[in-house]
From TrEMBL:
Protein species of origin: bioreactor metagenome
Residues covered by the DNA mismatch repair protein S5 domain: 209-327
Similarity field: Belongs to the DNA mismatch repair MutL/HexB family.
UniProt protein name: DNA mismatch repair protein MutL
NCBIfam families the UniProt entry points to: mutl (TIGR00585)
Length: 591
């Protein structure tokens, strides 16, 4: 058989198969266009699962009449002018293939009013373009797609039943809605409203979407932030007390695009670590903002596959954020559980837990694909792990559940009485005739500083931690790698100005980004590096000013503080204030 050029219409339909697989693909592409047009309200509807009709209406800026004939041409776009633009993409769409592909396999009508001007519309029927005519909405754009794959029965037979296709289309809209909480979304299936989301906060949008199929208590979902690292991270995650039997609710977004990236899903699970039992997974909606030059979405037509230049660094920052902030949330979570389980007499003093958001449709049951949520009981492995973290925080943890009488015995043995916490800044203790106020952050910082100087248990990193340096630091590291190696940090140069950490002490887990920041700006001698690094590690790993400290943790910390020869932090500041009984008596004019 001789080689010959394909008929343009045949070639168009073949190419369309990469972009348009089913009604959900159409919804995805039309949503991207509406979002790029600045729409504040988007309504998507399907009839017969989208096989008969798909319609999307938005209130965006609209399309100029002279641009309508270009809409369904191949590689016609307003978002890219030259090749370099691909490396600075901020819009959702950029290929110029979406409408062209939809028009090749359906009858599509696009009606639009540009900035409130007279509306015009154009129809393209399976690749055959018609004239531009007056008519359409007075605001925004309306796209109607009819008879998808009607002229391609071989493609149509691979589609699922209408109810399944409608569910897939709905899922695509919800996925987009999670990334844009400030915009309103509505989904209609066979003239019935299935989703109606109003503008709200990011966390509330996650809760609203979850409530459609899940019975989630809002207080069990936590907000996590990390804007101090190289990448801006935000996540809405479940507490360790709430888990699933699958990873289906670990969702990753990069620059508001949902992506499939296993290493980042893995980073989320690593962040929870031993707080979740084997085979259990959290709910986590993770949003990552990166410089557009560091990510390439131009890999696959669906844009779900991406290339991230600093994947390993993002991985470690995600692990660090989740591990650190989830653990810091445990005191509040444990307190809530203790109050609800062990103190029924106090219950009337507090508001009851708010009911989870109900589905928009009474009696609607979760789909079969939904894994059941699991609530950890008070005596579960998770709460035992939580108590260890609370009590130890890098010190020796104790599993004992002592009574107040036992605490009193311990305090007598330690020759001090713990009185409580002041302003969430100071631990207050009485020792004989003296009152002590201990700066909780500085004290914990000193204890960690002493610990990291003594312990150098080094761990090999599963994924090396990559970073860039300036020219002077690059030259310094080439000559002084042994300085860091002696501190348990193994560095390797991978390219000009590019380095990676392949191993580091176990105590540095969760603060890797701060270690990198230190390396990137330090060129001192061995002694300066050692002292500076230990101070950085201690500072960022310690309890913070404003943190609530439970009794067991406070007593453990004070016991170690009173054993110090000199109560100063790594920066040289004294962190203990001592007030004698006589001083206090004089202050209130008592003798």
């Amino acid at each position: 058989m001789k080689i010959q050029l394909l008929d343009p219409l045949v070639a168009q339909r073949i190419a369309a198969g990469e972009v348009i697989e089913r009604p959900a693909s159409v919804i995805r592409e039309l949503l991207d266009n509406a979002l790029d047009a600045g729409a504040k309200t988007i309504v998507a509807s399907v009839t017969d699962g989208g096989l008969e009709e798909i319609k999307l209406i938005d209130d965006g800026e609209g399309i100029e009449p002279e641009d309508l004939p270009l809409l369904c041409e191949s590689h016609a776009t307003s978002k890219v002018r030259e090749l370099d633009d691909l490396y600075h993409i901020k819009s959702m769409g950029f290929r110029g293939e979406a409408l062209y592909s939809i028009a090749a396999v359906s009858k599509i009508t696009i009606a639009s009013s540009f900035q409130g001007q007279d509306p015009y519309q154009i129809t393209v029927d399976n690749g055959r373009k018609e004239a531009v005519l007056p008519g359409g909405p007075r605001i925004g754009t309306m796209v109607t797609v009819q008879g998808l794959f009607k002229e391609l029965p071989a493609r149509r037979q691979f589609l699922k039943r209408p109810s399944t296709e409608a569910t897939m289309a709905r899922s695509v809209l919800l996925e987009k809605a999670l990334a844009y909480p400030e915009r309103a979304f509505r989904f209609i299936s066979d003239q019935t409203v299935r989703v109606d989301l109003v503008p709200t906060t990011r966390k509330q949008r996650v809760l609203d979407v979850l409530s459609l199929n899940q019975n989630i208590i809002p207080s069990e979902m936590l907000e996590l932030y990390d804007t101090a690292g190289r990448f801006d991270l935000y996540a809405v995650c479940s507490s360790p007390a709430l888990s699933r039997s699958d990873r289906s609710h670990i969702k990753i977004y990069v620059n508001n695009r949902p992506i499939d990236e296993y290493s980042l899903v893995q980073a989320v699970t690593y962040g929870y670590g031993e707080l979740l039992a084997g085979g259990s997974f959290p709910y986590c909606y993770l949003f990552i903002n990166v410089d557009p030059t560091l990510v390439d979405f131009n890999i696959h037509p669906t844009k779900r596959e991406v290339k991230l230049r600093n994947k390993a660094e993002i991985h470690h920052q995600v692990v660090s954020m989740i591990a650190g902030q989830i653990k810091r949330s445990i005191p509040r979570l444990v307190k809530q559980e203790m109050e609800s389980e062990d103190a029924p007499l106090l219950a009337p003093l507090y508001e009851s837990r708010p009911a989870a958001h109900q589905s928009h449709h009474a009696g609607e049951r979760p789909g079969r694909y939904e894994a059941t949520s699991q609530k950890a009981p008070l005596d579960s492995e998770w709460f035992q792990k939580a108590k260890e973290l609370l009590e130890g925080n890098r010190m020796q943890a104790s599993r004992s559940t002592e009574t107040d009488d036992v605490w009193a015995q311990q305090e007598d043995e330690q020759e001090f009485v713990y009185l409580g916490q002041a302003f969430n800044l100071f631990l207050v203790a009485q020792k004989q005739d003296d009152l002590f106020l201990v700066d909780q952050h500085a004290a914990h910082e000193r204890l960690i500083f002493d610990e990291v100087r003594q312990k150098k248990h080094v761990q090999q990193l599963m994924i090396p931690l990559s970073f860039e340096v300036e020219r002077d630091v690059d030259a310094y590291l080439l000559e002084s790698q042994d300085v860091y190696l002696n501190l348990g940090i193994k560095l390797e140069r991978t390219d000009d100005l590019l380095w990676q950490i392949t191993s580091l002490p176990a105590l540095y887990r969760n603060i890797e980004s701060h270690v990198i920041s230190f390396i990137q700006k330090t060129t001192g001698d061995a002694q300066e590096v050692e002292k500076g690094l230990y101070a950085v590690v201690a500072c960022h790993a310690a309890i913070k000013a404003g943190d609530s400290v439970d009794r067991m943790m406070a007593v453990s910390l004070l016991t170690k503080v009173f054993a110090l020869d000199e109560p100063t932090c790594p920066h040289g500041r004294t962190f203990v204030v001592r007030l004698g009984k006589n001083e206090l008596m004089k202050a209130v004019q008592r003798t």
